[in-house]
TrEMBL record, chain A:
GO terms for cellular component: plasma membrane. Residues 20-360 form the ABC-2 type transporter transmembrane domain. It holds the Pfam family ABC2_membrane_3. This is ABC-2 type transport system permease protein. It comes from Seinonella peptonophila.
UniProtKB/TrEMBL annotation, chain B:
Its EC number is 2.7.13.3. One of its GO terms (cellular component) is membrane. It catalyses: ATP + protein L-histidine = ADP + protein N-phospho-L-histidine. This is histidine kinase.
TrEMBL record, chain C:
InterPro entries: AAA+_ATPase, ABC_transporter-like_ATP-bd, ABC_transporter-like_CS, P-loop_NTPase. The keyword ATP-binding applies. Residues 4-234 form the ABC transporter domain. The lineage of its organism: Bacteria, Bacillati, Bacillota, Bacilli, Bacillales. GO terms for molecular function: ATP binding; ATP hydrolysis activity. It holds the Pfam family ABC_tran. PROSITE patterns: ABC_TRANSPORTER_1, ABC_TRANSPORTER_2. This is ABC-2 type transport system ATP-binding protein. Keywords: ATP-binding, Nucleotide-binding.
Length: 368, 367, 311
């Protein structure tokens, strides 16, 4: 019961603190509008790879010859062309970037030469060749064990069956407004930690902390009440934001809105726990705020909240926003839930960690 | 002035080196040789101890740098201003020679630019040497004062020892005098009474069989004399024995003076109110606690004065000891303060220790 | 019966001893004044009694029960008016009181009733829907009190409840202190304003460096310093005044004359001002001014601690 009145009080206090509340609501909406319109160009262009020109050279007849020709026949689509050449001419062509790749087949194995500047085409060739060599290795392994079956396999094989293509539906790619609606929503959940800090330190600033401690209630009741109040307020903010962007800005939130909302709420939990931890560890509200600002802003930068990050590296995955954005975008645009559970687990895990630290530091001190 | 000379010359050296690097001259080996020669001579000046050798080398260095500046590299002349300063400050006392030495070089320097830089460095060096000189004079003055003070303190110490001896001596004399006075008093009053009654008693012994009436009269006389004597003795002793409050105050004053004479600590002692209300047990506690406080003050406070105030109020005695030392921001309760508290507790008193403005101990004893 | 009993209460912060073996008992129904300069240990003592900080050693008994073993009981029966105004600016006066009273287990209509009662008591009934940010300093102080009394505690601790407010609000607060006392509450009152303490408190303790150095009614405290008062009479012409008859007036201890001023030293317990004036009148001596100087709490405090309260 005490927890409930604490929670209710926190909600009242936060909602009546108009400045903070407007910041929580108006700031992200304005951000979505600005970034969505200003950076819309980045999302209209799809970069096309173009034709890929591959040279190859065979050293007489060797064990690869047959499978490789089968492979060429299979992948020879309109965009891929193979041309036979000599050993030196092939390498020269690569050095001068006249071809995208040069493949040399010998008894020792397959050598692939690509030019560093070829970029994505080189990656495509590498991928194709990897698929081929995987399959070839498979067959030769089978030969070692059971030659009879291997023949069968070779006879029937066509490499394409063994390479899985996943294509995104090109008609369902996010436009800039859609993208920013998602990433700003996830980002704004992190900034919710600020209002949590304000709730805890507000008691010290208004001197009401002592009064709470004087009352016959447990400190954990205060703690839980604050947490629930903060969660509720931050959660409501995000829900309002999602609602606004969905019904006013008509952005795409996909067909599984409730999963998206769950992911966002887990992020709210993470931010709230972080805010609680920092405000209980650090007596000073200014330093807690600074840390949160730094954390939230770097996370936003790394997580693609300002500029979309085409190929996230390991450093980007340090930001919780990267996981969250990936999870949410996959749910919306690919109906793909593979990233949902890990993201959920990370958020819950880190929240529990933060809460434990907060509780630990609460136990060690005399005040609130 | 070694530090100044070397620093200045080092600066000039670095200036010349930087200059040669920038301008990239053709006869670089020659310049390096010249610089090395200059370094050698100047190090030589610092190494030799004899004043005449120093002067000789200085002159050599001056001449060499002038010759080299004319033949090898013009800026080598910049060593000369420092040399000039050395002459002026260390070797030449006559004002007019100093003036000549200051002005003369300018006639030997050909270009305007060289003259300008030469002049600048000369002024700079002069300022530094002058500052150093003043500083040294200052130091010398302080050392003299210091010596003087040391001497004075020695004299004073001697005086102190002497007066301490005198003090002990006079203390002993006073004791002797006092003893003398006491024995005189006992002799005069007790002796007389006992002697008188003895005679009476002896007479009575002789008469006790023959004349009973007379004997009784004599006995009565003896009793009378003895009881009179006893009264006098009581009165005398009461006169001799000092009053508690006098004793208490004097003890404290004595103790304070003793501290002041052994340590550089001035004291002041005030009392206010009806001092007779303080009982002997209070005095004892006050005395013991004050000794404790003063010992603490001596050990830690770096104080120069200490004041003790005894204020007797209607139902309370307040004793305050305060020094003007460093105090402590947070008073730690050691054995000393605990001891004071325990003593005060015997008379239901309180001790307040404060270290915020110097160190102060306030004792409050209810009456 | 003693409502509060502190026995050898000690609080150390590291090496610093804030409260030092403090022993004090407060009888039920008193308005108990706690006097002491800043840092004397008043607030620390109050914080220990109210349960905000733990004592290093010693015992606190509230109504005969040790508060360390009966925390809930103690908290239910103590109301603290903190020195700093401790209210939520974003809650209305009513919501503030209701929130804090609610923490004491009050619910429903009983809660509503007591909240209204507390607001009425401090005279904020008509403003119960306003936000404290629109309140004057005095009104905030009053709301601060209302938040502490809504759960009807037996012991109310008021820590400087009148700092920085206008005289009217101060009078209002002093009156409500008396009213609370009449309603059966025991009150511990600390203040920088010596006059307030002198006016309202029935029992006073002077605290310095964590110790009680004097305790009693204000008369008892004054008599520690002295039992006498001085009456200064300034007359136009001293001729014809006989001093001996003044000596015989009840309670007079001594008379001194300097110029046209007569200093009459007299017993503090005796009211003989009338008799003294009468004497001058019968002798037809014109009085210019008459002044009675007796020690007040301020001078008691100054004499005992060597510093004034507002240092």
């Amino acid at each position: 019961m005490n927890i409930w009145s604490m929670t209710l009080k926190e909600i009242l206090v936060t909602i009546r603190n108009k400045r903070a509340f407007i910041f929580m609501l108006a700031f992200p909406i304005i951000l979505i509008l600005i970034l969505g319109t200003a950076l819309s160009n980045n999302f209209e262009n799809t970069s096309s790879i173009g034709k890929i020109h591959i040279l190859y050279y065979e050293e007489q007849a060797n064990s690869y010859t047959k499978p490789f020709h089968d492979f060429m026949a299979a992948v020879k689509k309109s965009d891929l062309s193979f041309e036979k050449t000599t050993k030196d001419a092939g390498k020269q062509a690569i050095a001068k970037a006249k071809a995208d790749g040069y493949i040399e087949l010998s008894n020792k194995g397959i050598d692939l030469y690509v030019n560093n500047t070829s970029g994505i085409s080189a990656s495509v060739i590498q991928g194709l060749l990897k698929g081929f060599s995987d399959q070839y290795n498979l067959i030769s392994e089978v030969i070692k064990v059971n030659p009879q079956q291997a023949k069968q396999l070779m006879a029937s094989s066509s490499p394409t069956q063994h390479i899985k293509y996943i294509t995104l539906n090109p008609g369902k790619k996010p436009n800039s407004m859609d993208y920013y609606a998602v990433v700003i929503s996830t980002m704004i959940t992190l900034f919710g930690a600020l209002s949590t800090v304000a709730l805890v330190h507000g008691e010290n600033i208004q001197r009401t902390a002592d009064r709470l401690l004087l009352a016959p209630i447990h400190r954990y009741e205060i703690f839980i009440g604050k947490m629930l109040g903060s969660l509720f307020v931050n959660g409501i903010c995000v829900l309002l934001l999602v609602g606004f962007s969905k019904y006013v800005l008509h952005t795409n939130w996909g067909n599984h809105l409730w999963i998206v909302i769950l992911i966002l709420l887990s992020s709210v939990l993470l931010a709230t726990s972080l805010g609680l931890m920092l405000s209980y560890i650090l007596q000073n509200s200014a330093s807690a705020r600074t840390i949160i600002m730094i954390f939230a802003n770097t996370s936003a930068l790394l997580g693609g909240s300002w500029f979309a990050i085409p190929t996230p590296g390991w450093i980007n995955f340090l930001s919780p926003l990267t996981w969250e954005n990936e999870a949410v975008l996959k749910v919306i645009y690919a109906n793909d839930f593979t990233a949902t559970i890990p993201t959920f687990t990370y958020n819950l895990g880190f929240s529990v960690l933060c809460l434990l630290i907060a509780i630990f530091s609460l136990r060690r001190r005399e005040g609130l | 002035m070694i530090a100044e000379r070397i620093t200045l010359k080092g600066i000039i050296l670095i200036f010349i080196i930087l200059h040669t690097i920038q301008v990239s001259l053709q006869d670089l080996p020659k310049i390096i040789l010249a610089l090395l020669i200059m370094i050698c001579i100047n190090l030589g000046i610092e190494i030799v101890k004899d004043r005449r050798w120093k002067l000789t080398l200085l002159i050599v260095s001056t001449v060499v740098s002038f010759v080299l500046s004319q033949n090898v590299y013009q800026w080598l002349i910049l060593f000369i201003p420092i040399h000039i300063c050395e002459y002026i400050f260390e070797y030449i006392k006559q004002k007019w020679v100093q003036l000549i030495i200051l002005i003369a070089p300018f006639f030997f320097i050909s270009t305007r630019q060289e003259q300008f830089i030469f002049g600048l460095i000369l002024i700079f060096s002069l300022i530094i040497f002058q500052m150093r000189k003043q500083y040294e004079e200052h130091l010398l003055k302080h050392e003299t004062i210091n010596d003087q003070l040391r001497h004075e303190s020695q004299v004073l110490k001697k005086q102190l020892i002497l007066s301490n001896q005198y003090l002990k001596q006079s203390e002993y004399t006073i004791k002797l005098e006092e003893r003398n006075r006491l024995s005189q008093m006992i002799h005069d009053q007790v002796g007389h009474a006992i002697a008188g009654s003895l005679i009476q008693l002896k007479a009575m012994k002789m008469l006790k069989d023959s004349d009973q009436e007379k004997a009784t009269e004599l006995l009565q006389n003896a009793i009378h004399i003895l009881s009179e004597g006893l009264d006098t003795i009581r009165a005398t002793l009461k006169n001799i024995k000092p009053k508690t409050e006098q004793l208490g105050i004097h003890q404290i004053r004595l103790m304070l003076d003793k501290f002041s004479s052994t340590f550089p600590l001035q004291n002041s002692f005030h009392f206010q109110g009806n001092i007779e209300k303080i009982s002997a047990i209070h005095w004892k506690i006050i005395y013991e606690n004050l000794v404790e406080c003063l010992t603490n003050t001596m050990k830690y406070s770096k104080a120069t004065t200490v004041s003790v105030k005894i204020h007797v109020l209607n139902k309370l005695i307040k004793i305050e000891m305060k020094d003007n030392g460093v105090g402590v921001s947070k008073v730690k309760k050691g054995l000393g303060i605990q001891g004071m508290e325990e003593r005060a507790a015997k008379v239901h008193g309180t001790i307040i220790v404060d270290g915020s403005h110097g160190f102060s101990v306030t004792m409050l004893f209810p009456l | 019966m003693n409502i509060l009993e502190l026995t050898k209460l000690t609080k150390k912060f590291g090496d610093f001893i804030a409260v030092d073996q403090l022993t004090l008992s407060i009888a039920e129904g008193e308005i108990f004044g706690l006097l002491g300069a800043n840092g004397a240990g008043k607030s620390t003592t109050i914080n220990m009694v109210s349960g905000l900080i733990r004592a290093t050693s010693g015992e606190i008994q509230l109504m005969g029960k040790s508060i360390t073993n009966n925390r809930h009981f103690a908290k239910m029966n103590i109301g603290v008016v903190p020195q700093d105004i401790a209210i939520y600016e974003d809650l209305t006066a009513y919501e503030n009181v209701k929130f804090f009273a609610g923490l004491y287990g009050l619910r429903g209509t009983k809660l509503d009733e007591q909240v209204k009662k507390a607001l009425e008591f401090v005279g904020l009934s008509d403003r119960h829907k306003s936000f404290p940010k629109n309140f004057s300093g005095g009104m905030k102080r009053r709301l601060n009190i209302a938040c502490a009394i809504a759960h009807q505690p037996k012991l109310i601790i008021m820590d400087e409840p009148t700092v920085g407010i206008d005289p009217q609000s101060r009078n209002y607060i002093l009156n409500s202190v008396r009213k609370l006392n009449e309603m059966g509450c025991t009150i511990i009152y600390t203040s920088h304003y010596m006059e307030e303490v002198e006016e309202v408190c029935s029992q006073i303790a002077i605290v310095d460096h964590g110790k009680v150095i004097a305790e009693g009614t204000k008369e008892q405290l004054k008599s520690i310093i002295t039992d006498t008062k001085d009456v200064w009479v300034e007359v136009k012409n001293i001729d014809g005044l006989k001093l001996e008859p003044i000596q015989t007036i009840n309670g007079v201890l001594g008379v001194e004359v300097s110029d046209n001023q007569i200093k009459i030293n007299s017993d503090m317990g005796v009211n003989n001002l009338n008799a003294i004036i009468q004497h001058f009148i019968t002798n037809q001596i014109e009085i210019h001014s008459i002044q009675e100087k007796e020690p007040n709490l301020e001078s008691v405090f100054l004499t005992l601690t060597g510093r004034s309260l507002r240092d």
